[in-house]
Amino acid sequence: MKPYTRMIQRARPLLSLAVFTAGLATLVSIPSIALADLSSSATVQFGNPNAPSTEQNCTQREESCGNAFHKMIPGTVSIDGPGTVTFQLNGRHQVAVYNPGTNPNTIQVNEPTNRKEIFPAQTGGSVKVTFNEPGKYLVICNLAGHFQQNMWGWANVT
Length: 158
Hints:
single chain; alpha+beta; Immunoglobulin-like
């Protein structure tokens, strides 16, 4: 056996340990990196700014196109609390926020049960919501038809 082959065979366990340790250190640091990236503020598109237009034979009143307009983008936003989420309104909408534990399958439009707050309906502009407590908050468009077309999402506050 050549001398360098014997040296490689002896070093192999140490090399394996070094690779394992480096990999473990990387895995341990991932959660702290992810948490470090959370901000205390975020902006959400409330209504799809890229929905098909009337030039593409699509209007909000048509059943086939309505779902294209009524979206919260992204559908889930995460912030470090206390913090603020700005909902940029694209079209006419009404932001309603429900307390943690509320499920979109158990509420109706204009239902005040478990609602944190509701804002007046408006066309364009923005609505800023402050979250002081951690939790997973349900956010919906409270206008008839919009919520039923799945215009809802989540604000996760850590």
